[in-house]
């Protein structure tokens, strides 16, 4: 009975969430909660209420998932967990002795892993598979779990790593990388780290990429889940390499894989892009004509499409215009900056429309490349026309500026300090005016009055001479020189005040 109890408990540990919910519901227990809660509840159920009926339900659920295996070892190996390495990485010694382990459990039955598929990465070319995607199995109900796996490098693989060139000091172009993803057989899986991850290779902890801080308030830091380079801590010989992964068990299922890869740089990908993915100018013109072709159902006929020559990533003039084949817009971004950005922080998202922009769908716009060569640096925008031609937008801007200049009236600048410029008499008028009008002139040095013609054509009236003084003085115009009747002319009269008029200053 004890053996059957142990067998049932190990079967329960391999159940999925749906199996656990079915088992608990059949026994009248709650089926809500995370996976670790369901596992703990089912194990307590098996321990406290063990019965032939419960054992039968456990066996039926287990055989529905593993119809060809049974027994304790099979119960410890759930579906989707590979138990053998690829022939490229399996050494004869390890295969003959059955020394391949995961989580410390011997795996005598080699079964290829074909369920979990990792997404291919542009900066990594897989050369050989050292460990296929293998699920991390929790050993108990603790939050932190330790899972181990071992592999050996063949002499050829070790030589590849030793003789590889360096991308930068200490980083080789041939690496052994560790990749982790969700255990899911539907589609391809992206790299995803479990919580509280730590990787130890041959008793030495290796670096795992950390979190990127966020500048936006309320946005949590983002962690880039990329392959972990474990090459510096490996034994480049026939000695067995042991990898220990510490991970948080919070209900999610994860799989781990180890690959021998060649690492590319942004410059390498750019060379591939120029060699294999350049769209001709003729094909680009056809696409523009298709977009601008008149649609009878549309009320507005599009006669042109404007495209900026400024990269939306770095706000600089485009160098190599690039876009995604699946995007509907004609706006391009700079290929060099886009690849460099994804080398540091891989997102592969179109900076124009925020849609996925995988490397295999990138293309260089041949027409826009020709336009960039033909236009000067000061042109920042062009317009595609219905016939596939184009024109710069700078001419329209210059024409608008000229039109604004021609419609703006030109007003002269008036200097209030120069009498001849503003048409007014000076503020301190103690000398005679040099009038140019024939109707008034200065008769005597002590008298100021009359009108003068300003340079602009207007008449200037001296208001320091009141009406009574004009009547008394006669206000007659004449020559400024003395005549024969100057002796008979009366002396200058004073006004209503007892001071000479030539001492009056008008402010």
TrEMBL record:
Q: Acidic residues bias: where?
A: 468-487
Q: Which organism is it from?
A: Seriola dumerili (Greater amberjack)
Q: Where is this region: Disordered?
A: 395-507
Q: Which keywords does this Swiss-Prot/TrEMBL entry list?
A: DNA-binding, Isopeptide bond, Metal-binding, Nucleus, Transcription, Transcription regulation, Transferase, Ubl conjugation, Ubl conjugation pathway, Zinc, Zinc-finger
Gene Ontology, cellular component aspect? chromatin; nucleus
| Location(s) in or outside the cell | Nucleus
Question: What protein name does the entry list?
Answer: RING-type E3 ubiquitin transferase
Q: What is its main location?
A: nucleus
Cite a single GO BP annotation: regulation of transcription by RNA polymerase II
| UniProt xrefs under SUPFAM superfamilies | SAP domain
| UniProt cross-references to PANTHER family, sorted A to Z | E3 SUMO-PROTEIN LIGASE PIAS4, ZINC FINGER MIZ DOMAIN-CONTAINING PROTEIN
Q: Which GO terms describe its molecular function?
A: DNA binding; SUMO ligase activity; transcription coregulator activity; ubiquitin protein ligase activity; zinc ion binding
Its UniProt pathway annotation is:
Protein modification; protein sumoylation
**Keyword hit for Lipid biosynthesis:** no
PROSITE patterns, alphabetized: PINIT, SAP, ZF_SP_RING
Occurrences of domain SAP (ranges): 12-46
What Pfam families does the record tag this protein with? PINIT (PF14324), SAP (PF02037), zf-MIZ (PF02891)
Q: What is its EC number?
A: 2.3.2.27
Family label: Belongs to the PIAS family.
Carries keyword RNA-binding? no
- Biased region (Basic and acidic residues) positions are 395-407, 497-507
Question: The SP-RING-type domain covers which part of the protein?
Answer: 296-381
Q: Where is the composition biased (Low complexity)?
A: 429-441, 450-467
């Amino acid at each position: 009975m004890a053996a059957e109890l142990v067998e049932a408990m190990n079967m329960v540990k391999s159940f999925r969430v749906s199996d656990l919910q079915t088992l608990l519901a059949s026994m009248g227990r709650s089926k809500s909660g995370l996976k670790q809660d369901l596992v703990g509840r089912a194990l307590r159920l098996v321990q406290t209420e063990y019965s032939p009926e419960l054992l039968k339900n456990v066996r039926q659920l287990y055989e529905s998932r593993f119809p060809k295996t049974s027994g304790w070892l099979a119960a410890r190996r759930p579906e989707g967990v590979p138990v053998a390495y690829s022939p490229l990485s399996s050494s004869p010694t390890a295969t003959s002795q059955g020394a391949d382990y995961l989580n410390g459990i011997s795996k005598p039955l080699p079964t290829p892993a074909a369920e979990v598929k990792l997404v291919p990465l542009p900066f990594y070319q897989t050369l050989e598979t050292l460990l296929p995607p293998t699920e991390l199995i929790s050993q108990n109900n603790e939050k932190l779990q330790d899972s181990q796996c071992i592999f050996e490098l063949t002499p050829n693989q070790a030589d590849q790593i030793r003789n590889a060139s360096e991308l930068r000091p200490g980083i080789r172009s041939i690496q052994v990388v560790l990749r982790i993803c969700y255990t899911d057989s539907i589609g391809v899986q992206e790299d995803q780290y479990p919580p509280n991850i730590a990787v130890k290779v041959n008793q030495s902890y290796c670096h795992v990429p950390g979190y990127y801080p966020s500048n936006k308030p309320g946005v949590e830091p983002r962690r880039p889940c990329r392959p972990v380079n474990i090459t510096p801590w490996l034994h480049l010989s026939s000695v067995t390499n042991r990898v220990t992964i510490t991970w948080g068990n919070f209900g999610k299922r994860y799989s781990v894989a180890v690959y021998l890869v060649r690492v590319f740089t942004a410059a390498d990908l750019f060379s591939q892009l120029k060699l294999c993915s350049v769209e001709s100018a003729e094909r680009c013109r056809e696409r523009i004509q298709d977009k601008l072709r008149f649609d009878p159902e549309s009320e507005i006929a599009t006669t042109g499409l404007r495209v900026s020559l400024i990269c939306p990533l770095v706000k600089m003039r485009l160098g190599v215009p690039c876009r995604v084949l699946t995007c509907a817009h004609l706006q391009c971004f700079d290929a060099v900056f886009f690849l460099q950005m994804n080398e540091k922080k891989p997102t592969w998202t179109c900076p124009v429309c925020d849609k996925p922009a995988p490397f295999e769908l990138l293309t260089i716009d041949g027409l826009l490349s020709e336009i960039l060569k033909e236009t000067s640096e000061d042109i920042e925008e062009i317009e595609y026309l219905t016939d596939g031609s184009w024109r710069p937008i700078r001419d329209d801007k210059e024409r608008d500026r000229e039109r604004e200049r021609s419609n703006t009236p030109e007003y002269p600048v008036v200097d209030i300090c120069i009498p001849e410029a503003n048409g007014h008499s000076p503020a301190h008028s103690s000398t005679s005016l040099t009038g140019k009008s024939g109707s008034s002139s200065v008769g005597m040095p002590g008298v100021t009055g009359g009108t003068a013609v300003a340079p602009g054509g207007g008449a200037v009236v001296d208001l320091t001479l009141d009406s009574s003084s004009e009547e008394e003085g006669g206000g007659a115009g004449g020559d400024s020189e003395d005549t024969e009747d100057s002796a008979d002319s009366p002396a200058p009269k004073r006004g209503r005040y007892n001071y000479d008029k030539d001492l009056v200053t008008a402010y």
